[in-house]
Automatic annotation (TrEMBL):
Belongs to the DapA family. Its main location: cytoplasm. The lineage of its organism: Bacteria, Bacillati, Actinomycetota, Actinomycetes, Kitasatosporales. It comes from Kitasatospora atroaurantiaca. This is 4-hydroxy-tetrahydrodipicolinate synthase. Homotetramer; dimer of dimers. InterPro entries: Aldolase_TIM (IPR013785), DapA (IPR005263), DapA-like (IPR002220). One of its GO terms (biological process) is lysine biosynthetic process via diaminopimelate. HAMAP family: DapA.
Length: 292
């Protein structure tokens, strides 16, 4: 599968009463695709997936699958847990997805060989290609470039969402020698521009709800080697992304989307708390600065 460009991990909009706001989700999905996103991610971290019940998860995936079908866009669905057997069962039930975003098992810290065995087991059984979600500051499990490359060599593994909180040695080594057919996607909004400059195929970025078209422009600028434009735009997008992540994701992004009238409420579910007004205002200022 060809994974290229900017994918938006959609927030789950809620009403003031805390119910899923399906109409707002559908509008957001169309808006980001209108601005050039290559696809959507349903049930990512940004979706507060851990707090959604089964019926809500089904509604979100069905809605995103319908929109992606209508628009000819790629749908990636977050799935899996730290239990390999149950992850395989969840993947088997995925409907309407083009690929599944599966995090490295969190908390159990199985070591690199355990992570390899987990993904080999899942890739053999999954009806769709897998994207490894590598986010060691959430999972507690680091991976070397060699392990990432071995993951990339597994049949049925299409890419990695690389979110290591920087551009580290493993990222440099991986991007210096990417296995064929394996897409490296930036997963930390702040480091999108440097990873694209190093050869990443694109990104899965919550801040791309805001200024989607500018993120797409950045990926295209690095893709065609327009370093002067890409470098300047990358700095401005990083400043905006930094503001969007000033409080736990997706609280600031929901605050901004609400202030823009794009979702009915900034509500998030516990244990998240809504972002403070100052953080939302700061992100709005950074966003406005992008237009200048
Ligand atoms: O849901 C996602 O996918 C993302 N989650 C990350 C996080 O919250 O750590 C941030 C990234 O922009 C996309």
């Amino acid at each position: 599968m060809d994974l290229h460009g900017i994918y938006v991990p959609l927030v789950t909009p809620f009403t003031d009463g805390g119910e899923l706001a399906a109409g707002a989700l559908e509008r957001l999905a169309h808006e980001v695709l209108d601005e050039g996103a290559a696809g959507l991610v349903a049930l990512g971290t940004t979706a507060e997936a851990a707090t959604l019940d089964d019926a809500e998860r089904r509604t979100v995936v069905e809605l995103c699958a319908r929109v992606c079908r209508e628009r000819g866009a790629t749908l990636i669905v977050g799935a899996g847990s730290s239990d390999t057997r149950r992850s395989a069962e969840a993947l088997a039930k995925l409907a309407g997805a083009d690929a599944a975003l599966v995090a490295v098992p969190a908390f159990s810290r199985p070591g690199e060989e355990g992570v390899l065995a987990h993904f080999a087991y899942l890739a053999e059984r999954s009806p769709v290609p897998l994207i490894v979600y590598h986010i060691p500051y959430r999972t507690g499990q680091t991976l070397s470039a060699a392990a990432l490359r071995r993951l990339g060599g597994l049949p049925g593994v299409a890419g990695v969402k690389l979110a290591v909180g920087g551009v580290d040695q493993a990222a440099m080594e991986l991007l210096g020698d990417v296995p064929p057919g394996f897409a490296v996607l930036a997963g930390d909004d702040l480091y999108l521009s440097p990873l694209l400059a190093l050869g990443a195929a694109g990104g899965i970025l919550a801040a791309a709800h805001l200024a989607t078209g500018r993120f797409v422009e950045l990926a295209e600028a690095w893709g065609k080697g327009d370093a002067e434009h890409a470098r300047a735009l990358g700095h401005r997008l990083a400043a905006m992304a930094g503001a969007a992540f000033a409080e736990p994701n997706p609280t600031v992004i929901k605050g901004v989307l609400h202030a823009q009238g794009r979702i009915p409420s900034p509500a998030v579910r516990l244990p998240l708390l809504p972002a403070g007004r100052a953080s939302v205002d700061h992100a709005l200022e950074r966003l406005a600065a992008l237009a200048c």
